[in-house]
Amino acid sequence: MESIDEAAIAEARRGNPDGFRVLVERHSRAVYRLTYRMTGNEHDAEDLVQETFLRAAKQIHRFDGRAAFGTWLHRIAANCATDLLRARTSRERRMVKATKDEDGAQEVMANVAAATPSPERLALSTEILRLLTPAMAQLTEMERAVFVLRHYDGRSIEEICEVMKVKPGAAKNSIFRAVQKLRRVLEPALGRAARTAV
Amino acid sequence: MKHLSEQELTQAYFGDVTAEGRRHLESCAVCKRELQTLAGTLDALKAIEPPELAPHWEEGVWRSIESRASAGLQRRSARPWWMLAPALAMVVVLAFAAGMWVERRSDSGRGAMAANTRERVLLIALGDHLERSQIVLAEIENAPESKTNDISAEQQLASRLVGENRLLRLTAARAGDGTSAAFLAQLERVLVEIAHAPDSVSESELNELKGSIESQGLLFKTRVIGSNAKEKGMKL
Ligand SMILES: [Zn+2]
User: Fold this and answer.
1) Which H or E run includes B202?
2) Same structural domain, A86 and A38
3) Do A183 and A158 have their domain in common?
4) pLDDT in tens, A46-76
5) pTM exceeds 0.80 for this model
6) Domain ranges, residue A148
7) Mutation test of the interface with chain B: which of A179, A182, A184, A185, choosing the one with the most B Cβ atoms within 10 A?
8) Last residue of some domain: A63, A94, A125?
9) Same-domain check for residues A85 and A10
10) What share of residues in chain B are helix, strand, coil (percent, to 5)?
11) Is A197 found in the same domain as A106?
């Protein structure tokens, strides 16, 4: 229903709150899903949803319609995460340290080749959830936005370039650097299990 | 044999791999293992799902940002929206469609607009739309026939009405009003036909358009349904 988005955007641009409300109603759940995936925390994810739409309202005149509205919005969501992730990092770091201290007692199984969810996979998810905020906080704004659009939203490199105003090479580099940084934080905790996995 | 770099492995994960890279991955256990580790981490990130949200959750989001978001929108808009009359019917339809959409997710009528109000604005919007459609149809229907006929004014109006008509038709269909949806589909076909005709039509082309309008009793139906809708809307 892209045409409803288009009409709603046109109204919002004229300053009509009803038009913008339509956009909030149509897109906020998807934005929430994304912000939760960046923070692993319901409260932060909700705050980010609000912040995303507030920024979108101020910037709606800049939306040029060349990328899908959802893509444009998710880019804003990724950018909104920056300050919040940084603020949360120090708290999270203390938690990570506590986790590391327990490491000896914890047996995190990371059967990376498993195709179906298993108790081990769930344990892996819990572990990742714990490390998510500090891991995401390592990324630059650009890296996070590009990674989020590619990995979570499954956007093509072309569409990402359109919305981020970058060249394909730069987008691919940002994805690579994001993956590198995330792995560096996430994998040591899971590394032993990953190394022993067949 | 040269192993794939971390960057190449990352690109391979996202489906961006050369034929040579793919062949290597098939035969090299080391790279295959590396890719599995990387995939394990990235897949686990993607597997994170938020807890279920409450029904009506998005209404809460709107309520908490409404005043600030509205201020944000106003800052940039040159004119207040209610001055832009041609767009008004569209807004009303949108608001209605949005309400329907929210309402369909739950049974309680907690939408910001009361069902009654919504029905009223929809009926008025429909009446308004049909009134303008009627003008286009009547102009074509009554146009004197000559060798060439300039219908560019009717075309412009028709193409603006097509989008509005589509929204109204979808809204009607979603509301379960099959009769209105079917009538609007009929009207839409003729509006599209007019909008897509050349600026200047020949006598036979004009007669063809007139035929489409007449064969379905469209002008009459548009007039009757339009004034009924408006009257009913005003009474609510
Ligand atoms: Zn290799």
Assistant:
1) strand B200-202
2) yes
3) yes
4) 999 999 999 999 989 888 888 899 999 999 9
5) no
6) 97-198
7) A179
8) A94
9) yes
10) 75, 5, 20
11) yes
Chain centroid, CA A140 distance in Å: 12
Same domain, yes or no, for A148 and A76? no
Helices assigned H by DSSP within B14-106: 19-27, 29-46, 57-76, 85-103
Does residue A174 register a pLDDT over 60?
yes
Q: Is A124 on the interface with B (CB under 8 A)?
A: yes
- Which of B6, B58, B66 is facing A25, going by the closest CB pair? B58
Alpha-carbon span B168 to B91, nearest angstrom = 11
**For chain B, domain boundaries:** 6-46, 93-235
Same domain, yes or no: A50 and A67: yes
Query: How many A/B residue pairs have CB atoms within 8 Å?
Result: 180
Same domain, A59 and A124: no
- How far, in Å, CA of B203 to CA of B236, rounded? 45
Residues of B within 8 A of A136 (CB-CB) are none
Contact B194, B209 (CB under 8 A): yes
B29 CA to middle of ligand 1, Å? Answer: 7
Residue numbers in chain B where pLDDT is lower than 50: 77-87, 101-109, 112
Ligand 1 centre from B27 Cα, in Å? 8
Token pair 């394909």: residue = A168
- From residue A134, alpha-carbon distances to A65, A89, B235 in Å are 34, 5, 60
HSE, CB side, 13 Å, CA atoms: give it for residue B113: 23
* CATH number of the domain where residue A171 is located: 1.10.10.10
| pLDDT tens column, A146-161 | 999 999 999 999 999 9
Residues of B in contact with A16 (CB under 8 A): 73, 81, 91
Question: Is some CB atom of chain B closer than 8 A to the CB atom of A22?
Answer: yes
Q: Are residues A55 and A135 in the same domain?
A: no
Identify residue B225 by its one-letter amino acid code. I
> How far is the centre of ligand 1, averaged over its atoms, from the C-alpha of A138 (Å)?
29
What span, in angstroms and rounded, lies between the C-alpha atoms of B15 and B8?
A: 10
Torsion of CA A55, A57, A59, A64, to 10 degrees: 130
Q: What pairing do the DSSP bridges indicate for beta strands B200-202 and B148-150? A: antiparallel
What confidence score (pLDDT) does residue B101 get? 42
Q: Which residue in this structure is represented by tokens 């990402």?
A: A160
What ipTM was assigned to the predicted interfaces of this complex? 0.79
CATH of the domain at A49: 1.10.1740.10
